[in-house]
Here is the input.
Amino acid sequence: MGELCIQKMGREHIPAVACLDRENRRGDFLPALGGGFLRILYDRFLASGEAFGFVVLEKGRVAAFIIGSEDTRLLFRKVIRSAFIPLGFHAVPRLLSRPTLIKKLWETFSYPEKGSSAGKAELMVMGTYSAFRRRGLGRELVTALNRELSRRGVVDYQVTAKDKNSSANAFYRSLGFVYEGSFRLYNESWNRFSYCFHP
Ligand SMILES: CC(C)(COP(=O)(O)OP(=O)(O)OC[C@H]1O[C@@H](n2cnc3c(N)ncnc32)[C@H](O)[C@@H]1OP(=O)(O)O)[C@@H](O)C(=O)NCCC(=O)NCCS
Here is the structure.
């Protein structure tokens, strides 16, 4: 990776991670709730102990990141309990100006209920700045995630990607994720993949 280095995501990385995620996923639901919302959400993910992440730094700046969870359902429950008011503070003005987002918010928090044959763990979100893509950063981040999940005793996990997100679909397939099926979320088709450490 040359001058790039990978390290465990700390809470100090969250503003840069939220910024990268917003840039990468313009028009998607969660980024539409604003940078403040994402910063609190990802901060509470890390604080919960259920989620963890890694960043790739280039000259000290975040070039790519990944966030995984050991148990997404439990994570969402903890985050709603601990951050309902601050998340609401950031989300409500946007929800009121675009009421269609309310249904999407409900879908987001009921999303872990959609069944998967893989366990409770999940690769929740990842992204590489466009200038750094196809340089192996994503692969390195998934390797780091796998190491951490294994260390925590996880045997398999899932990841989802919009069907139309051809880069992400190709990326997961190339890393050995197995396509499990599709489902609808936010009025779009999504694909579910699983990864098993001992197939
Ligand atoms: C998906 C994403 C994270 C991949 O990150 P990356 O750092 O570019 O990935 P890598 O360089 O490690 O790619 C590893 C392999 O995946 C495959 N791959 C990655 N991007 C691909 C693309 N656009 N088309 C086809 N294959 C691709 C290739 O096999 C690649 O190996 P190669 O470059 O030696 O051929 C990146 O494209 C991204 O940030 N997309 C926008 C955000 C997003 O969709 N996140 C995932 C959903 S949360």
About this structure: The pocket of coenzyme A is lined by residues 24, 64, 125-128, 133-139, 161, 165, 167-168, 170-171, 174 (CB under 6 Å). The longest helix spans residues 72-97. The mean pLDDT is 91.
